[in-house]
Structures are given as C-alpha cells and as structure tokens.
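Why run this: before we spend reagent on co-expression, it is cheaper to look at a predicted model of the complex and decide which construct boundaries make sense. The entries below are exactly what would go into the expression plan.
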Amino acid sequence: MERQIIGKCRKQLTFVVLFNFLFWFLLLYFYSEFSVGKNPIALFGNNFGNSDNPQESNFVHLHENSLEPNTQLPDMGNNQSNEEIRDVKNVTKTESSNIRSRNWDTSTAKNVFQAEDDGFESVHQISVSEKELEPDNNQMQAHSRDNEAKFVEVSGSENGEESENEVAPNVNGNKNAPTITKQSSREKKRGAESDVVDRSCLGRYVYVHDLPKKFNEDLLKNCRSLSNWTDMCEFTSNLGLGPRLPNFVKVYSKYGWFATNQFLLEVIFHNRMKQYRCLTKNSSMASAIFVPYYAGLDVARYLWGSNTSMRDSGSLQLVKWLREKPEWKKMWGRDHFMVAGRITWDFRRLTDGDFDWGSKLMLLPESRNMTILTIESSPWSNNDYAIPYPTYFHPSKDIEVFQWQNRMRRQKRRFLFSFAGAARPNLQDSIRSEIIAQCQASRRKCKLLDCDSHSNKCYKPVFVMKMFQSSVFCLQPAGDSYTRRSAFDSILAGCIPVFFHPGSAYVQYLWHLPKDHTKYSVFIPAFDIKKGNISIERTLHRIPKHKIRAMREEVISLIPKVIYADPSSRLETLDDAFDIAVKGVLERVSRVEREMREGKSSSFDYLEELSWKYNLLGTVQKEHEWDPFFART
Ligand SMILES: *[C@@H]1O[C@H](CO)[C@@H](O)[C@H](O)[C@H]1NC(C)=O
Ligand SMILES: *[C@@H]1O[C@H](CO)[C@@H](O)[C@H](O)[C@H]1NC(C)=O
Ligand SMILES: *[C@@H]1O[C@H](CO)[C@@H](O)[C@H](O)[C@H]1NC(C)=O
Ligand SMILES: *[C@@H]1O[C@H](CO)[C@@H](O)[C@H](O)[C@H]1NC(C)=O
Ligand SMILES: *[C@@H]1O[C@H](CO)[C@@H](O)[C@H](O)[C@H]1NC(C)=O
Ligand SMILES: *[C@@H]1O[C@H](CO)[C@@H](O)[C@H](O)[C@H]1NC(C)=O
Ligand SMILES: *[C@@H]1O[C@H](CO)[C@@H](O)[C@H](O)[C@H]1NC(C)=O
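The model came back. Tokens follow.
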C-alpha cells in the first residue's frame, strides 16, 4: 500500500521534474532566439543566413540586387538625398571664398507618387485626426508604452538602462505640466490666440513674425523655380517632409517615413513651430522671436550663375523689414532666430565678386545679432548654431519612435562597417579615396555604396537605410564640407557613426549630441588616415563588444533627439530635434539678456574665430587636441 503510494508519488515527481525541465528548456530556447539578434558573436561572424527576426525575413539583401520590387522603387531623384551635394571647396581655410559649383543632381523624382496609392496616406490621416479627437489618447499611449517595455524585458535586455530608456522617456520641464499634456493641440492653439498666460510657458513663449509671403509661402508656391534639376514641388509636399516612402521591402516601419530632402529643414521647422506649445501672439510676452524666412530655398535659386545682387536681395529685404519692426529694438535682434536649411557656407560670401560663392546673409550686421540655426555651422563664428539634418523618419506618435528603437536594437548587423559616398578626387585634403580603398580591402567586413558607380543605389533611401541597419559602424568622412546628412541617417539606423574630423559633429550639434563623443561614436583622425598608418578595420575590431553594445544603445537613445516629428501632429512625451533646438535658443537668448542687463556690451568676450572652442568647452584658454583641425593659416 505505502509502496504503491510512494511509487505513485515518484511517478508524479518524475513527471513534475520532466515538465519543469521541458518548461525551462523551452523558455531558454525562446530567450536565446530573441536575443540572438543582439548577440555580438553573430555580428562579427560571416552570418549571411536568414535572419531570426521575422520582420527581417522579407528583406532584400543589399548585395544581392535581385528582388524585383527594388527596381520598381521610385528613384528618390535627388542625388542630394544621401550623398551631400556640396559646392564648398577650401572651406576649412578660406571659408566661402573658393566655392565652386558642382554639377547638381539631374534626375528627378518622377516616380515618387506612383507608389503612393498604398493606403498609408489615408490610414495616417485617420490616425492623426483620431489623436486630436480622442480625449483618452494619452492613456492609450501610456498603455502601449507599457507593452513595449514589457517586450524589451522578454527579449532580453543586455543593458540595464535599456528598459529605463523605454519607460521613462525624456520628460523634461516643459512637458510634464499635466495641464498641458492633456490639452489637445486645438485647445492649446486657442489658448495661444487668446493670450491666456500659461504659467508653465513663462520664459518659453515664442512669437512668430508674420513675414510678407515673398519670404516663405511664395517660394513654395513657385516651387518649380526652386531648382532646375530637382522637382522641389514634390519635396515641399507634406509640410516639407516630401512624398511618403513606399515600404515594399520593409526597410522602414509602417508609419512616418518620407523621402525628405536634406535642404527643407526651414520649411519643416516652420511647420513644426506651429505645434509649439508656447506660441504667443503678443510679442512683448515672448522670450524669443522666430523669423520664418526660407533662406536656403531663396538663395538656392541664385547659387549657380546669378550675380551677387540677386543672391543677396532676399536677405537684404528681410533684415530691412526686421529692423523696422518694434520687436527689433527690444534686444537689437538678439532674441531673434531663424533657420537656414543649407550649410553655413552658402550664406557667408566674403567679397562682392560674382565668382564668389553664396549670399552674405550670415555676415549682415543684423544677422550677426541673431541666432541662425543651420545644418552645418561655422566653427569660427558665433551667430550660427548647428541642428540635425532632417532624416526620412517623421513620426507622429511616441510609440512609433519606441517601436523603431526596439527594432534597431534587435537588428542583425552583418557588416562591421559601411560607407555610402563618393570620392572627392579634386579635394586635396579629402580622405574619401583612402576610406573607399580601405573598405574595398576589407571586403568581408565592409559594405560600400559607391555614389560614383552607375548603379545609383546610393541615392535611394531604401538602399542606404538597409545598409546602415545591417552595419555596426558607419563611416562619416567629410565631403565637400564637414558635415553630412548621412551621420543622422546612420544614427536613425542604430549604426555607430565613425567620424574623422571633429567638425563633422562634435563641435556642431552641441544641443543634440552628448558632449562626450566617445559615448556614441568612434573618432579616427583624418590625419592618420591620410598618412596611411591606421587600419579602420583593425581599429574597429579592437573595440570590446561590451563597449560596442553600450555605444549602440546610446546611439539608439539619440534617435528621438535627432528626428523631426511630423509637423501635422505632436509627440506626447518625447522631445524631438525641434524641441531641443528651441530650448537651446531660449537658453542662449536668456544668457545674452542677462549679460546685457549686467552691462556687458557683447555676448562674447573671446576671439570669434575660437567660437568652436568656446561653444564646446566654455573657455578658449586651454590648448586642445583639436586645435590643429581648426587652425586657420
Ligand atoms: C545624379 O544622378 C544621376 C543619375 O540619376 C547621374 O547621372 C548624375 O551624374 C548624378 N549627379 C551627381 C552630381 O552625382
Ligand atoms: C501683451 O503683453 C504685455 C506684457 O505682458 C501686456 O502689458 C499687454 O497688455 C499685452 N498686450 C495685449 C494686446 O494683450
Ligand atoms: C535655371 O536656369 C535658368 C536659365 O539658365 C537660370 O536663369 C536660373 O537661375 C536657373 N535656376 C536655378 C534655380 O538654378
Ligand atoms: C544682376 O542680375 C539681374 C538679373 O539677371 C539683373 O537685372 C541685374 O541688373 C544684375 N545686377 C548687376 C549689378 O549686375
Ligand atoms: C546689434 O546689437 C548691438 C548691441 O548688442 C547694437 O548696438 C547694434 O546696433 C545691433 N545691430 C543692429 C544692426 O541692430
Ligand atoms: C584652396 O585655396 C587656395 C587659395 O585660396 C588655392 O590656391 C587652392 O588651389 C585651393 N584648393 C583647392 C583644392 O581648390
Ligand atoms: C600615425 O602616425 C602618427 C605620427 O606619424 C602618430 O601620431 C599616430 O599615433 C599614428 N597612428 C597609428 C595608429 O599608429
């Protein structure tokens, strides 16, 4: 009898043990399946097999060039989209004095709209209006965010901070006032119009100058005249975001992807400003005055083959208009800011010779008192400030960002490093040829999208984004000028950027990127590459895997900060590149105001030529290892 019971118990016990074993086995199995995408061993192995990521299984491999859908993908037309078309030569030494015009893009984006009837447009529209009407929207968002965070846990967080990044997105002062976040944008707009003082907005009010239409709207209306090579009418659509990108090969996420032109930041920023929470119609309440002039679109019409008076005419009319406004007198323009969506060298013509490049917008006395935000600033000037290039991703909800971040965390990256770009045989100091040669020599580890080759893949966002998503490191050497849009595309793809000149990012995007550049990027001095005594592959290979993981996590956490949200909507808790830029401007203005009150005549007491150093370190006294990079001889 007892034996029987014991026997039974044994059987049960065996069963329980077996079941337990099976259970743990399955659990472990799934766990490893999920985390394999992040497994550093997989990163470096020659793993060309199919991905474990179900989302990835439909992906077209870049190097295969075989799937039909790709060939039908619209040509995004502008060669500018990934490889910057820069017309700046000798920028390092003589600023704008030697800038030559290059043959611009000639292809058009004809096909872009053919692929538009995939239903995304309407779906998106609905979701936007839902958001406005739905009072409980915030709750919904919070709920989905919870799910998102849980998923991160299940899929194996290798970095304790990861989930923290997920659940506690950068909530900062301006947005945690519950009264504001609960308000719908429509209510908020009404608030701004009736000038009800919102206490959470004190010190953050922005007044937008109502410029004559010729400074902005008319330029868009006459979009045909903006470029002889690119159909700017397509790129100015969707509030400056451009046409929606079709997602045949699932390189992008479902919503929020556009064929954005790198030079449309001034339009995007202006529209984004319409969603700013603390707008005022009463300029005497404002802490800063926004000037919505489309400086880049204006000057681009005259960069090639026009005389200087044509190039300067818009800028001169603008500053005259500004100077005559009562708002100017308050701080002599020091509280004014605007966006110039081209690199600073297009606005810094030193002489009045027609052979010289660009306009002189940034050198006008009025402009010297303003803050001009631009995609590349001058290290030697202190009236311009760099903010990120626009990328292709313009989400309208926080959740779209979180989902994209998670996808980039799981992404399998089979290339150690990659490069999209062309050589610059005419630029003496360029290291592009060396970079390309090194990449070609590291055949198995490096993926190259050669913008000189005939395939033209380099100009299609789908190929570039796919390549960056498959790479651990993305090389970002200077081109015709220091910066590249590509650096932001690579951050967006969770690819750790490798810079070769501190002017390419470290002294530029001080509001948006961490001060400690080693946290999110690798620096290999261009001098060493030129000398030929450094191997990129070996340098990158030497970086410990845990360090790579930490850097990538940092890069992915930067994604919300370097993207511009869809201006037709508004993110709930995240600060996008626009929010961070406005915050930066407000801080700058208040510092100047304080100094003016204290009787300091000027907002800076250092040699302007050392602006890069002052902005970076807050002092120009000490010697710095980057001095040689910015020496002006
Ligand atoms: C731009 O791309 C077209 C092909 O679409 C090519 O013929 C042209 O040379 C490219 N322009 C530049 C500046 O690379
Ligand atoms: C604008 O704001 C100022 C200072 O806050 C106030 O004195 C003035 O009455 C306001 N003007 C209007 C038209 O509301
Ligand atoms: C386009 O070409 C015409 C004629 O050559 C020229 O007058 C005009 O300035 C050009 N436009 C742009 C935007 O380059
Ligand atoms: C500059 O070009 C415009 C248009 O081609 C012309 O009307 C104007 O007279 C020129 N100005 C000078 C100073 O040459
Ligand atoms: C620029 O600001 C200074 C004061 O900081 C002022 O004296 C000067 O007149 C301003 N320039 C213009 C063009 O308003
Ligand atoms: C740079 O400028 C100097 C003088 O301004 C000139 O002699 C040199 O040829 C220029 N270099 C290039 C690559 O254009
Ligand atoms: C390359 O050479 C320079 C000096 O010639 C040296 O400072 C630098 O450290 C070298 N780099 C490597 C990786 O050896």
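Confidence is low (pLDDT under 50) at residues 32-193. The chain has five domains: 2-35, 42-200, 206-390+579-602, 412-562, 603-633. Bring this page to Monday's planning discussion.
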